[in-house]
């Protein structure tokens, strides 16, 4: 798996990181020691590429710069040709100690010349505003003319807590110190960070937010049967192809039994997919009285007319765990939080950015607005994108940022909705992250230019990789 983001790693905001660091100091670890560990972690990664090449280390005015001086010294001790380009003069505390320990060549940042390897130690979690034009232009120039660029903790010019673009250049590698930050996995920060390497430098980092990990996926219990593995009912609508993709995806995502409820029996498709006639909302409501249903999926290809709305209301009024996708989200709109909060059964929403913004307002990064939406609606929110944020009502969150770019093709959202239905049926709300992992892994296995149908075929292969 081309792992750009390490899996299952805690994600901490700048403030939480500083608190974790402070706790370390209180526990007796000196800041110099932490800075040495940080610098050693970055130097180790830089060495993989830097052998025999000239190195330019950018040292900023704070502790990110302090780390940079450690990196410079360690690389020079290994015999590399290292120059430091420094922004500002005397530092404070540990950063000043490290500056004084550096006895190699130092130039002022504005006099820096490009070298083969660039180490970016200008700014890390202290990034508080857009890079000035001169620093941004110089940074982009030096990165562009390097053969390999590596960022200390974060690329300079990335918003730590929201991944905002504050002038960052695109680095080849970023070494995340102590924990991931939202800036590594969201928006412009995900792009600027390049390949992210997690460096555990001995700072205990508890968090209710993590990067996505491969799900535990035990085979069904020996005594399981199609109902105990979960019956998923997918509601068909105006565009039956979308709901059929969702239904087939649920079948391959581990559900024990999948029903498709619609007006017209499909003339093709897997025989294992059971069709139930539901010519209108009333007949759908009757079908939904079946207590064997473990999860309901509505939205893919549903339509937005009065009949579609009536079907959606029947699904919302049912007591079943429910996945709402596509047209159902558009019809819910701003009423989502209020309408869903009353539901007792588990509810999962799978909006893309446009659908999300029609349902939930709020400023702040994708992570914070999605967590707030989950809290207000009482639903699990799967806020899709190259950086998919999954948030639960109790505050937990997971970010998936390894998805294949080839997922940008019609029908992959329908496939994800079906996978969420299967995982909801098999393992409840906590199993939803597994659907996103399977979807992303199946896309990697499907290779370039796949169609949504090919994606479904890879889901069992991805499942097979889970322990
Ligand atoms: N977390 C850990 O386990 C460890 C982290 N370390 C490293 O420390 C940095 C964070 O260091 P900090 O000193 O808090 O901040 P920075 O070095 O990122 O930034 C330094 C100062 O720069 C100023 N600033 C912010 N944005 C800009 C800008 N756009 N242009 C110019 N200057 C800017 C800001 O000061 P102001 O007073 O001007 O706001 C910053 O304080 C972390 O990333 C790690 O690399 C430890 O060394 C090891 C353990
Ligand atoms: K940096």
TrEMBL record:
InterPro entries given in the database record: CARKD, Nnr, Ribokinase-like, YjeF_N_dom, YjeF_N_dom_sf
GO MF annotation list: ADP-dependent NAD(P)H-hydrate dehydratase activity; ATP binding; kinase activity; metal ion binding; NAD(P)HX epimerase activity
Reaction equations catalysed: (6R)-NADHX = (6S)-NADHX; (6R)-NADPHX = (6S)-NADPHX; (6S)-NADHX + ADP = AMP + phosphate + NADH + H(+); (6S)-NADPHX + ADP = AMP + phosphate + NADPH + H(+)
A Pfam family recorded for this sequence: Carb_kinase
EC code(s) of this entry: 4.2.1.136, 5.1.99.6
Start and end residues of each YjeF N-terminal domain: 17-209
Residues reported in the UniProt entry to bind AMP: 384-388, 413
Residues covered by the YjeF C-terminal domain: 209-466
UniProt key word Transmembrane helix: no
Cofactor(s) needed by this chain: Mg(2+); K(+)
Residues annotated as binding K(+): 64, 120, 156
Any GO BP: metabolite repair
Protein keywords: ATP-binding, Isomerase, Kinase, Lyase, Metal-binding, Multifunctional enzyme, NAD, NADP, Nucleotide-binding, Potassium, Transferase
Cofactor, how bound (note): Binds 1 potassium ion per subunit.
Residues annotated as binding (6S)-NADPHX: 63-67, 124-130, 153, 242, 301, 352, 414
Domain of life, source organism: Bacteria
UniProt xrefs under HAMAP family: NADHX_dehydratase (MF_01965), NADHX_epimerase (MF_01966)
Record PANTHER family: ATP-DEPENDENT (S)-NAD(P)H-HYDRATE DEHYDRATASE, ATP-DEPENDENT (S)-NAD(P)H-HYDRATE DEHYDRATASE FAMILY MEMBER
Recorded family membership: In the N-terminal section; belongs to the NnrE/AIBP family.
Role of this protein: Bifunctional enzyme that catalyzes the epimerization of the S- and R-forms of NAD(P)HX and the dehydration of the S-form of NAD(P)HX at the expense of ADP, which is converted to AMP. This allows the repair of both epimers of NAD(P)HX, a damaged form of NAD(P)H that is a result of enzymatic or heat-dependent hydration.
Known partners and oligomeric status: Homotetramer.
Record's protein name: Bifunctional NAD(P)H-hydrate repair enzyme
């Amino acid at each position: 798996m081309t792992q750009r983001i390490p899996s299952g790693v805690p994600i901490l905001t700048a403030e939480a990181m500083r608190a974790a660091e402070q706790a370390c100091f209180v526990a007796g670890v000196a800041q110099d020691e932490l800075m040495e560990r940080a610098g050693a972690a970055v130097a180790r990664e830089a060495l993989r590429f830097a052998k025999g090449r000239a190195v330019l280390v950018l040292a900023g005015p704070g502790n990110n710069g302090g780390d940079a001086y450690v990196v410079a010294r360690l690389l020079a001790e290994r015999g590399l040709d290292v120059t430091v380009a420094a922004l500002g003069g005397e530092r404070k505390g540990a950063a000043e100690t490290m500056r004084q320990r550096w006895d190699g060549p130092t130039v002022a940042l504005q006099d820096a010349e490009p070298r083969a390897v660039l180490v970016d130690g200008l700014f890390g979690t202290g990034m508080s505003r857009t890079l000035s034009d001169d620093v941004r232009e110089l940074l982009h120039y030096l990165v562009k003319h390097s053969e390999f660029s590596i960022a200390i903790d974060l690329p300079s010019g990335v918003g730590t807590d929201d991944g905002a673009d504050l002038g960052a250049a695109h680095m080849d590698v970023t070494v995340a110190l102590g924990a991931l930050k939202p800036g590594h996995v969201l928006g412009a920060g995900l792009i600027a960070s390049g390949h992210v390497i997690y460096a555990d430098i001995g700072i205990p980092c508890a968090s209710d937010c993590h990067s996505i990990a491969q799900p535990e996926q035990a085979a069904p219990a020996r005594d399981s049967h199609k109902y105990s593995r979960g019956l998923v009912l997918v509601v068909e609508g105006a565009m039956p192809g979308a709901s059929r993709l969702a239904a087939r995806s649920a079948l391959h995502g581990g559900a024990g039994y999948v029903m498709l409820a619609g007006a017209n029996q499909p003339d093709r498709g897997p025989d294992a997919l059971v069709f139930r006639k539901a010519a209108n909302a009333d007949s759908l409501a009757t079908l939904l009285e079946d207590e064997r249903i473990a999860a309901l999926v509505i939205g893919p290809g549903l339509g937005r007319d009065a009949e579609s709305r009536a079907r959606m209301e029947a699904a919302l009024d049912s007591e079943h765990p429910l996945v709402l996708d596509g047209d159902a989200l558009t019809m819910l709109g701003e009423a989502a939080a209020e309408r869903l909060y009353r539901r007792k059964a588990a509810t999962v929403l799978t909006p893309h950015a446009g659908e999300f913004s029609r349902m939930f307002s709020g400023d702040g990064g994708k992570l914070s607005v999605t967590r707030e939406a989950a809290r207000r609606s009482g639903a699990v929110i799967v806020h899709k994108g190259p950086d998919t944020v999954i948030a639960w009502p109790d505050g937990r969150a997971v970010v998936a940022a390894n998805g294949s770019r080839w997922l940008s093709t019609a029908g992959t959202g329908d496939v994800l909705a079906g996978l969420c239905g299967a995982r909801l049926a098999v393992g409840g709300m906590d199993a939803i992250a597994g659907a996103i992992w399977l979807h992303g892994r199946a896309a990697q296995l499907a290779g370039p230019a796949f169609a949504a149908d090919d994606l479904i075929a890879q889901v069992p292969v991805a499942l097979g990789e889970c322990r």
